[in-house]
Input
Amino acid sequence: MSITKIGKYFHLQGKKMSYVMEIGSDEMLHHVYWGNQLDQIPTVLYDRAPYRRQKRIEGRNPDSVECTREFSHYECPIYGTSDFRLPALHGRNEKNGASVFDLRYAGYNITDKITQPKGMPGMMACERTQQLDVYLKDTLLSLSVTLHYILSPEIDCIARYMTVKNDGLEGFILNEVMSATIDFEDGNFSLYTLNGTTLREFTPDIRAFHPGVTLLGSTRGSSSHQHSPNAVLLRQGTDTFQGECYGLSLHSGNFVLRFEKDCYGSCRVQGGIHPLDFSWLLQEGESFDTPQLFLSYSSQGLNGLSQCQHSALRRHVVRGDYANKERPLLLNTWEGCYFDVNHERLMELGDACRETGIELLVLDDGWFGKRDSASSSLGDWIVNKEKFPGGLAQTADALKEKGIRMGIWVEPEMVSPNSDLYRAHPDWCLHVPGRVRTEWRNQLVLDLSRPEVVDYIIQSLDRIFQDGKISFVKWDMNRRLTEVWSQSLPAERQGETRHRYILGLYRILEHLVQTYPYLLMENCASGGGRYDYGMFHYFQQGWLSDNTDGVCRLKMQNAASVFYPPEIITSHVAACPNHQIGRVTPLSFRADVCTLFNSGYELDLTKMSKEELDEVSKICGRMKELRTTVQGGNFFRLTRDVMPEKEFGWMCVKGNRAVAGYFRPYCEAESAYWHIGLNGLEDTARYRDIASGLEMMGRDWKNIGWRPNWREGDYFSEFLLLEKVEQLP
Ligand code: GLA
Output
C-alpha cells in the first residue's frame, strides 16, 4: 500500500483501491485505471485505451498523434488542440491572447511530507500518508503545472489539487481551473447527488448519465443548499450494501462538479472552482493553487463508501480539541427564545439544563448591538448591556456555577446597514459603485477579499473569546453573495473577488482554531448552506438544517450520513407544532430521530410541564449513554435502498457496543413487519441484545436480523442495544 512508479506507470495503492496513471509516449499524463485494488500493473493496461486510439497505436490510423487526443484519457486535459471535451484549465496569455496549451510531463516527486493548497483547507498527514507531485510544463506559455495526489492508503481516499505557476515575463489570465479530472473509460454510472433549498437540504437524487455535460455547482459564494459539493458515481446495481462507488467532495465557495459523457461513451469527471465570473491573473513568478477535491472508492456499496468518507473526515480533516472528543449535549436558545434573550432567561434555562442533564447552553442570535430583530447590528459584536448588564463573562460565570458551559452565535461575515460598522465603513461590503446593494435578511456581505476587513473581524472575535469564558461558537452565514466587486482590487483582478473572499474566511477560521483550540465550533449557513469538507477543517460539527421536524429530518440525516459521520451532524429536539412545517409528533419520536447523531435541544424548557421535563431528563440520560457508541463509531444505514422514503434504519458500532435504530414515520394498513438485517458487526463475534438477553453471532444478526416490536400507529421508532459477549477465532 503506497505510491510507486513502475516504469512509465504511477500506482497509488490503497487497502482495497488502485489508481493508475501512465506517462504516455506523447509525454502527456494519461489516466489508466481507478477501482478495485490491483496487485501489479500489467503493461496490457495500455490496451484499455478506446478502440480508435488502439488503431492509432497500431499505426493503422493515418491521423497524427495531435489529431487523436479526443480518444485518450488524461489527468490534466488541455484545450486548444484535438481534445474538445472540458479542459482541466483554461486561460490566456495576457499579451497576445493565445489560449492553446501544450502541457508535457516534466518529472515527479514522491514524499511523505504532505502539502496543502495555500491558505486553504487540505488533507492532513497521518501515518502512511504519501504525496505524489507530477510536474507538467508548457514551454511556449512558460507555465508549469503541478498535479498533487495525497494518498491515505488505509482509507482508500486521495486528495487532489493543482498548482499553476507562471514562469514567464508576460502575465497569464486563468479563467478556468479544476482541482482534478478523472477520465473514466466508460460512462456506465448513475450519479447520486444531494440537492434542495433552505429547510429542504440534503434531498437525494439519482440520475443516469446521458451524452453531453451534466453540471452541478454553486454560483452563490457558498457551497449552497441547492447542490451539495458532494456526489457519488454509482456503478449499475450498486446499493447501500454492495457494488462499486466513487465519492467526490469539494470545498466551501463557488464550485462545480461536471461530468461529460462523450461520443465514445467515456466519462470525464471534474471538480473545482465554478468558472462563471472567475479569473485569476498570474504575473511573473506567481502561482495559483486550486482547492482540494477528495476522491474515495469502495466496492462495498454506499455503506462502504461512507466508511471511507467518515474516516477521511475524522483522521484527515477535522481539527481542534473536539475533533476526537465527545460533543456535549446542548440547548440552543433560537427556537425557544428567538431574539428575546437576556441574563435572567439564560439563568432560568440554565437551571432547567442542570435538572435535565443538558451540559451546554448556546446563546443564539440577539445578544449584541441593538439586535432585537433581524433588522440591525450585524458587525457590531459588542454585548448588549441592557440584556446582559455584566457582559457575557458574568452570564458564563453564573452558568458555570450551575455546571453548565456557555456558547454563543455569531455571523461575522455580514453587516447590517443599520449598524455602527456600516455607518463607519459603508465601502466595506461587497458592492458595485452606482448599483443597488441587494439586502437579504436586511444584511449585506462584508468584503473578505480585503485584508483590513478580515483583520477587523479577527479583532472583534478576539474581544469575545480571549477571556476563555465561552466554550462554543455557532458560526452562521445567512445570505448569498451578490454585487460581487471589491473596492480594493484593480479591474483586471475583479474576477478574483469570490475566491479571495473564501481565502479571507479561511484566514479568520484558521486564526480561531489556532488561538482557541478548546472551542467547539458549529458550522451553520441558514442550516446546511455551507456543509462541505472545507468548512469541517475548522468546525467539529454542523447544523444540518433549520428544519427541525422529525419526519423531514429522517431523510436529510440519512442522506447527509453518506458523507458525514454522526458526531458532525447536529440534530435538535424542537417544540411542537413544529415551527417550520407545523407537524405535531410525539416527543419520544422527535428525540429518537436525533439520538444516533450529535443530539441536542432547541425549545423553551421553562415552558414544559413537570411530566415533559421528566421525559426530557430520561431522554438526555439515554442520549448521553448512547453517544459513546454513536460519536466516533462506525455508522451504517440499514435500508438497501439508497434513497429510502418510508422507513429508515441506522446503526453505530464502536468497541464492544452497537446500537441500531429503526424509524417508520407513517403506518400503513396491513404492512409487512420484517426483520432488519444489521450491519457492521463482526461475523464471528457473539452479541447480546441487552434488553432481551437474546444472543446471536454477528453474521446471524445480519442474515436473520432484528425484529423490532412493531406497533400500529404513526411515528414508530425503536432502538436495539447490543453488546459483544464473545469473540471467536
Ligand atoms: C439562521 C440559523 C438559525 C438561527 C438564526 C439566528 O437562520 O440557521 O439556526 O441561528 O439564523 O438569526
